[in-house]
Amino acid sequence: MNKIKKLLSNVAIVLMQVLSVSCNTNQASTKKKLDTDKDSETLEIRPKPKAVGNTHVGDKIKIGLVASLTGPLKTWGMDSLHACRLAIDECNANGGIHGMEVDLLVEDCASKPEQAPTATHKLYTAGILGVIGDASTGINMQIAKVAYDTGIPHISSNTTNLEFTHEGSNIYRVCHTNDVQGGMMALFAYHDLGVRRISVLTDRTQPFSVVVSKEFIKKFEQLGGTVTTELFYETGQCLFSGQLTNIKATNPDALFMSGYFTEVGVLARQALEIGLDVPMLGGDGWDCEELVKSGIHGIEGGYLANQYSNDEQREAVQHFVNLWEKEYGSPPATNTGAMAYDAICVMLDALRRCESLNSANLCETLESTEGFESVSGTITFKNVHGDPHKGGVVQQIKNGELVHVKRYQHELILDNEDID
């Protein structure tokens, strides 16, 4: 009997310690966890900013854009600027919001994440109610920190990093996430191309590249494929003979390169020069006409994940493409234009529904967004913690153009299934 009492006493002590640790952890944590659906996944309740942002004053409603208007990512930055101006001109031509025009304030971050905080804070002090961030994950991660500290809502056009929206309850994206992008390309490589052995090249200096490679490898191995090797390079590197020679020695069926177009084109060309003539795959970091110029024949026939395709026949797509062609004389060259257009259109829609024109009410209204039909698909922020459940498309480079191959739905990617 004494042994039993002692045992029960010890169990009680352990339980009290566990409960104590659990309570302390919950009190110290700024992010709680909720049990959700049948898969027992958890979603984070994001911390709410303590600051309240800005309140509208004057005769124009101010929205900010931080974009790479100079530097190596200028192509994406200019597409973001063109898209935001297109959307605001369309809005103002239709009467504006609450009878007022919308004014776009723009700051250049020069393609450098370290310059994004200063650019964002400058827009905040100028009185913007919310801010749009352009394509780069690294840049948007820095914008989000300032947005959270100041209380202004931030919508990113292309940040696919899974942790991006964890910064705060005022941080949103209109694109799919890296698990979708990496998973989609793994499914396509394994099922559609019949790839069983693949090598991976990752830009260790770009958070986007690191995470997309990680998600691709995880999904590809889950499907039963073999990753022969993962090698690394850095942004700005020009010579890749060492990595490519080592990859060739592993005899892969294909090569997955998760980095940006700035290096991928050169990589593809040099791979062909050493006789590494295998199918090449990547993420939407490839999406730039400069890729074809730098990659020449090496990148021809390659496949990439993307958010949408210009040649999709959905009404929202064709409306946007026609607007763009009318204003700029040619179809959008990258997905960044469409994604930035989606981001600012979602913000404009929320502003129309705001009861009060201030950043705090804008955040609340964005959170209630449900079923918004955009160029890249349906966007819902309600109950999804800033991450709309979106799929994507696979495109192929044919004769220097991006050609639509197939669309994947969000749920089917996560369920290891695909559709035509």
How does this structure look, described?
By secondary structure, the chain is of the alpha/beta class. The chain folds into 2 domains: 60-176 and 312-389, Response regulator (Rossmann fold); 179-306 and 393-414, Response regulator (Rossmann fold, 3-Layer(aba) Sandwich). The protein is 42% helix and 19% strand. The strands form 4 sheets. The chain has a 7-stranded mixed beta sheet. The protein has a 5-stranded parallel beta sheet with strand order 4-3-5-6-7, with helices on both faces. Strands 1-2 form a two-stranded antiparallel sheet. Helix 4 links the parallel strand 5 (130-133) and strand 6. The radius of gyration is 23 Å and the shape is elongated.
Q: What's a quick, concise take on this entry?
A:
With 420 residues, this protein is an alpha/beta fold. Helices cover 42% and strands 19% of the residues. It has a seven-stranded mixed beta sheet.
